[in-house]
Amino acid sequence: MSVGCKKILWVSDEIDYFRSQIAFLETRGYSVISIQSCNELLEKIEQNAKIADLILIDTKADGIDILSIVSAIRKIDSNLPIVLISQNESESFSKNKPAVRIDAVISRPFTTSHFLAICKKLLNTSRSVPKEFKEAFLRSYSEIKAILARNVTIREYYRLYEKLVFWDMEIENCGDESLRQALAGLRSDIDSAFSNFIIQNYGPWINAQAEAPLLGHRVIEKRIMPLLSEDKKCLLLVISGMRFDQYLYIERALNNLFDIKRQYFLATLPSAEEFSRNSFFAGELPVQIDSRNQGLLKEPDNEDKMSPNRMENQLLFQKFSNNGEMISDQEPYYSVIKPSDDAVSILAKIQSCQKSRLITMVLDLEEHVCCSNLTDQERIDFQSNESARRLLTDIWFQKSEIFKVIQTLTSKDITLVITSDHGSVLCNRATEVYNSEKLIKNRRYKFGVDISADERRVVFIPEPSHFGLPSLGEEMNCIIAKENYYFSHPEKFDYSRKEYKSSFQKGGISLEELIMPLGIFQQKED
Predict the structure, then answer these.
(1) Domain CATH code at residue 26
(2) At how many degrees (to 10) do helices 112-126 and 376-384 cross?
(3) Which of 59-63, 143-147, 418-422 comes out lowest in average pLDDT?
(4) What is the bridge-based pairing of β-strands 445-448 and 477-481?
(5) pLDDT band at 5, cuts 50/70/90?
(6) DSSP secondary structure string, 17-56?
(7) Which CATH number belongs to the domain containing residue 305 in this structure?
(8) Separation between Cα atoms, residue 131 and residue 174, nearest integer Å
(9) Number of domains in the chain
(10) Residues near 259 by Cβ (< 8 Å), separated by ≥ 6?
(11) Within 13 Å of residue 191, how many CA atoms lie on the same side as its CB?
């Protein structure tokens, strides 16, 4: 359910200038009514004081005294949020007439994320949460707690994660702090249970001692190859580092173009590129990859200098060859999409491999988003805030070159698959690692001799091969962080807290890092 469609009245005699912002608001579930003049605005409010939840006024609108307009609105509805869009930062409406309350002033040019953040803040604080919404959340809360009280299956964890993300987005839009705190507690309970579930079952799954769910190293064989035939192609887009909540915005942007089937799989441990992505393309566990390609996953005794993904193309080629799927020297096609690549160059790559049934493209989500036109504050928010991370992913994708390319895929003979190799988790709790000389790169997993940590917060793996991992050296142990913990040196605890608290990390065991979406997109039937 939704809290309700929020209505925005936007006043400007240059409304076409704001069409992209209006379209973006509408994709986020807002209803936007555009008005050319302030006189028309006053007429509408006088006729129906509840016509809008928020007023946006361009200060250039038809030359009328804006402050007089605001005063007139306040006489009709003193609580209606009003935002002015000014021409420059030097305009100061509150100084000129302090008696007139203006809730926010946005100066041109402004970023979409900053603009939306202001609108959401005002809308959330100006409306009470409907009773029906609270009751629906409490029912869902009770149902989830009841499920957690029994033995939960992996399919149930997928559904629980879907519900968590759903309520996270809904409560984000309603702004109720008590609901937010209740959801945070529920999320912690689910993540703790899920981490213990993975620790208990991952070894038996990969060693064929128990019926296993779909794991990352089996996706190519079990889900991608069945889509291929002599007259059927597949474009596999791997968006590295994409979480399920980010994927949902991409799915929504493509909903009108494709029929979509969504599935899930579990990323390979540790949930970082050098392990999960190599396993994804090789169709093998890290220990098997390392045995077949000596030194691929490691630089001896120092996992912080691992060279990830330098042989993905070869690993994918080997997988196809071993399965007897080769049809030409172009099979399968593999390419990395860089932030500088435009739609023309990406399409040229696709058209250059006509003989390949599988066209694989990989892009690093964080790299692409952070290389878009972000402000310094937006980059900080992307690295430290889940809501901002989703929003900025949404903005990036809808303006991206890869979205333009996807919109050209009109043939029913090609299936689009969008997935990820691993996710990330917002870390807020530190746990100390002992007998480790340094922690340079990895804050969620560590290899070492005699390393140790609080086993309530990590999984300790004395024999890495039991978890499908290479040893990286003699007598090497491995520890992997659970839930939302990050590693800290005992002597540098305060430094670690300053640097890594409220940061997104990868490589551990959590819902966000391990449960990966697999979206299969096929052209809609006429």
Answers:
(1) 3.40.50.2300
(2) 60
(3) 59-63
(4) antiparallel
(5) low
(6) GGHHHHHHHHHTT-EEEEES-HHHHHHHHHH-TTS-SEEE
(7) 3.40.720
(8) 12
(9) 4
(10) 521, 522, 523, 524, 525
(11) 24
Q: Which domain holds residue 46?
A: 7-126
Residue 327 has pLDDT above 80, yes or no: no
CB 406 within 8 A of CB 254: yes
Place of tokens 């689910």: 190
Residues 230 and 282 in one domain: yes
Which of 126, 156, 190 delimits the end of a domain?
Answer: 126
Evaluate whether residue 352 is within a structural domain: yes
Q: Taking the CB of residue 460, how many other CB atoms lie within 10 A of it?
A: 14
Verdict on whether the full-model pTM lies above 0.70: yes
Same structural domain for residues 64 and 139?
Answer: no
**Same domain membership, residue 416 and residue 319:** yes
Contact (CB, 8 A) for 215 and 268:
yes
Distance (Å, whole) CA 425 – CA 507: 9
The answer to whether residues 200 and 297 belong to one domain is no
Q: Pick the more confident residue, 276 or 495.
A: 276
Burial tier of 139 (Cβ tally within 10 Å: 0-12, 13-18, 19+): exposed
Same domain as 319, residue 371 = yes
Q: Is the dihedral of CA 205, 210, 213, 219 positive or negative?
A: positive
Residue 2 included in any domain: no
Cα–Cα distance, 228 to 233 (Å, whole number): 6
With respect to residue 211, please indicate whether it lies within any of the assigned structural domains.
no
Start-end of H helices in 175-297: 177-206, 219, 244-253, 278-282, 286-292
For residues 6-15, average pLDDT: 84
Do residues 136 and 1 lie in contact, with contact meaning Cβ atoms separated by under 8 Å?
Answer: yes
Q: Which of 97, 126, 155 delimits the end of a domain?
A: 126
**What is the C-alpha to C-alpha distance for residues 115 and 127, in angstroms, rounded to an integer?**
19
Interatomic CA distance for residues 135 and 175, integer angstroms: 16
497 and 431, same domain (yes or no): yes
20 and 109 share one domain: yes
Residue type, 518: L
Q: For tokens 């390319």, name the residue.
A: 405
- Whether 407 and 283 share a structural domain: yes
Q: ω into residue 109 within 30 of 0, thus cis? A: yes
